Amino acid sequence: MKTSSKWAEARLNWTKEDWTSVLWKDETLGNGQQEAEKTRRSGSAG
Predict the structure, then answer these.
(1) Angstrom distance (rounded) from CA 40 to CA 46
(2) pTM of the predicted protein model
(3) What is the pLDDT of residues 8-19, one digit of tens each?
(4) If you ran DSSP here, which 8-state letter would residue 15 be given?
(5) Which of 3, 37, 44, 46 lies deepest, with the highest CB count within 10 Å?
(6) How far is it, in rounded angstroms, from Cα 43 to Cα 46?
(7) How far, CA to CA in Å, does 2 sit from each of 6, 8, 9, 17, 20?
(8) What confidence tier does 22 reach under pLDDT thresholds 50, 70, 90?
(9) HSE of 36 in the Cβ direction (CA atoms, 13 Å)?
């Protein structure tokens, strides 16, 4: 399990900016997928 602790250590070195950009990017991607899913559902339902 050495690799997982190494991974955690790397994350501890991240700055607030790193986390903010990553979280913001993930959120944006997630919202985009939800919109596509909504469109697909309403299209097949109607």
Answers:
(1) 10
(2) 0.26
(3) 777 777 888 888
(4) -
(5) 37
(6) 5
(7) 6, 10, 11, 27, 27
(8) confident
(9) 6
